[in-house]
Design a protein that fits this description.
single chain, 0% strand
Length: 145
């Protein structure tokens, strides 16, 4: 049995991280020229979306309201950062590097939650799924550097 506040915090963080993943892939997808990378990103996008939807479906069991998401200013900032970082270099390797940096941030946050939290089994499994999914995509992204 987990600590309810830790469960809520974990769900909020993983939901926010998944939303950021969805946003980042959305912003970068139209810049991708490599069809294999585009295919991989569409799969990763769907994985993030699935985790967001799963969290949204179980969140009422833990807390009222909605899980934390990326705010409009955060979305605008992400879009601006992607545009700035890709203005001069839209190569597959550079785009992949940006995606790897974001994916690594998600893995680190997920691992931090798993290592320090006393989570309910359902929440723990979802965080583990989030981390494992990102680690898989990280390995696949490395091929495009």
């Amino acid at each position: 049995m987990g600590d309810k506040m830790e469960d809520i915090n974990a769900l909020d963080e993983i939901h926010k991280g998944s939303c950021m993943g969805v946003d980042a892939i959305n912003f970068i997808l139209d810049k991708v020229e490599d069809k294999n990378l585009e295919k991989l990103l569409r799969k990763q996008y769907k994985s993030y979306k699935d985790i967001c939807e799963r969290i949204e479906s179980i969140y009422p069991n833990y807390n009222e309201g909605n899980p934390h998401s990326t705010s409009m200013p955060e979305k605008v900032m992400t879009d601006w950062m992607v545009n700035m970082k890709t203005m001069m270099d839209k190569s597959t390797s550079h785009l992949t590097e940006l995606l790897i940096q974001g994916t690594n941030m998600g893995i680190i946050e997920g691992r931090r939650i798993l290592n320090k939290k006393n989570l309910n089994e359902e929440v723990n499994d979802l965080v583990q799924k989030y981390v494992t999914m990102q680690e898989k995509y990280l390995d696949n992204l490395k091929e495009f550097l």
